[in-house]
Amino acid sequence: MQVGVIMGGVSSEKEISLLTGNEIIDNLDKDKYEVVPIPINTQYELIDRVRCLEFAFIALHGKFGEDGRIQAILESMGVPFSGCGVLASALCMNKDISKKIFVSQNIKTPEWVKIKNEDEVNYSKINEIGYPVIVKPNNGGSSIGIIIAHDEKQFKEGIKKALKYDEEIIIEKYIDGDEITCCMLNGEVLPILSIKSKYGWFNYDSKYDEDGAKEEVIELTDEKMKKVEKIAYKCWDSFKLKVYARIDMIVKDNEIYVLEINTLPGMTKNSLLPKSAAAYGLNFSELLDKIIEYSLE
What we know:
Elements: E1 2-8, H1 14-27, E2 34-40, H2 46-50, E3 55-58, H3 69-77, H4 86-93, H5 95-104, E4 112-115, H6 123-129, E5 133-137, E6 147-149, H7 152-162, E7 169-173, E8 178-185, E9 188-189, E10 193-197, H8 204-208, E11 213-217, H9 222-238, E12 244-252, E13 255-262, H10 272-280, H11 284-296
Parallel strand pairs: 1-2, 1-3
Antiparallel strand pairs: 4-7, 5-6, 5-7, 8-9, 8-10, 8-12, 10-11, 12-13
């Protein structure tokens, strides 16, 4: 089977996409697949390069990767592709819409507001939420453009920074708890990982630096594990997820808050999904086999 690995792209996460793509290429079983690297720099060069593919492995991140647009193009061309479909990708990419769905499904998520510019800020509402707050692009990933603001000065700086990456931004209550991530494969919950960043929170450097964070399988109490699994399955069903995804959460006391869902989680050597799969018993090559198998189903 000819498998094209689409990487690069047009978003601020292009460099991470290239790392993901090259890691996937290195680990795909060459005895099973004819692997074709497809680095792209624009949206327009995609169509001619994927037209004859038997399968497209999407290694893009951010805009024109996780937002449903490339999925729509591949679907319209009849090219099978990895991961979630158009609807799930679009919903999960938009943090404001995701959080509204969380609320509608009685899934706890940190309190938030969405704005398009600094003039829309309701400072009485921000004070009601209480500092510190997280300021981040509404559509984005890899913690790019995100800042934790502890006061109004940092808050205003955070707005300017986030608006460089997106037309809408989210201001979210900072929950001081334990970060965990729940990776799912074909609707099944894989081993839960705890995340302890040496930078205080799981920022860009934590995700991609060697030893930027300590990520290990965590043993939750039966009660918390049942809560996490229930939330994960509810997310899977509510967002129409398929094949694989990663759900990021914060545990504080006995409460579990969902931060966001990643429909194309990173697949670099430091990424969380391969680590969780390894704890489950799947090496990287086997994980890629499963993703292709479940995507074709």
